[in-house]
């Protein structure tokens, strides 16, 4: 039996205004370029399509397609998929726990930008197994996730803030819930296009714990970085982990 999910915050966060914020004032061009270059290198030798889980408006899928990669995007929210240019768009609205694809349909899969950890632990495990189902044996995974010990400290030390950027005002505050091992965020975005209060919840994993969960789900980790520039992962310093894994079998 699956546990009740606590992802009810998601529809109130991933709205058209979210897309407007992350395509505008919050868009990180350099970071995106680094991420795209990393993904392009890891999927360079793929002889089949690659799935972008939680692709949103296509921040990675669109430039990867331009480089010639066969990327299919999937996201829970169809309005985000419609923001991808229609030309070359291959996008399917779905929940990442139950993907509407055949076993082994993909040669690779990636899930980046804090997109893993949206559910209670058992459903997060189910997500990793679902990815293993749709990727063929030998296929590749790139997964970025926060590294709990370091990220929890950052969150604990974070002061509520208000920022003005690109015509938008952003207020945000974060807390760490040790019992649920979750990072909790809430805030308000104000723009000329409207205003939105949001909540955000992310179940955090330590890198070694996530590596074990990946192994249990059918993945073998072959690379572990602290960033997309291939910085070595450091258990005490890295706020994030970037895994490259291979589908066992
Ligand atoms: C933090 S955003 C990252 C978007 C994109 N990967 C990027 O880097 O710009 C997380 C994405 O996951 C999607 N998402 C949220 N819950 C989901 C679910 N249950 N199944 C599939 N996608 C989901 C959101 O709509 C959003 O596009």
Corresponding CATH superfamily of the largest domain: Vaccinia Virus protein VP39
- How many β strands by DSSP? 11
Structural class: alpha/beta
Assigned CATH architecture of the largest domain = 3-Layer(aba) Sandwich
- Which band does the percent of strand residues land in? 25-35%
The ordered H/E elements are HHHEHEHEEHEHEEEEHEE
Average the pLDDT over all residues and give the rounded result.
95
CATH class assignment of the largest domain:
Alpha Beta
Oligomer: single chain
Radius of gyration: 17 Å
Number of helices: 8
How would you describe the shape? globular
Bound ligands: S-adenosylmethionine
Low-confidence stretches: none
Description:
- With 249 residues, this protein is of the alpha/beta class.
- It folds into two domains: 10-146 and 205-247, Rossmann fold; 150-200.
- 29% of the residues lie in helices and 32% in strands.
- It has helices spanning 10-13, 16-23, 29-42, 61-66, 78-81, 121-134, 148-157, 207-217; strands spanning 50-53, 71-75, 91-93, 106-111, 135-146, 161-165, 168-177, 182-191, 194-203, 219-225, 240-247.
- It has a seven-stranded mixed β-sheet.
- S-adenosylmethionine binds at residues 7, 10, 14, 54-56, 59, 75-77, 80, 95-96, 112-115, 118.
- Residues 7, 10, 14, 54-56, 59, 75-77, 80, 95-96, 112-115, 118 line the site of S-adenosylmethionine.
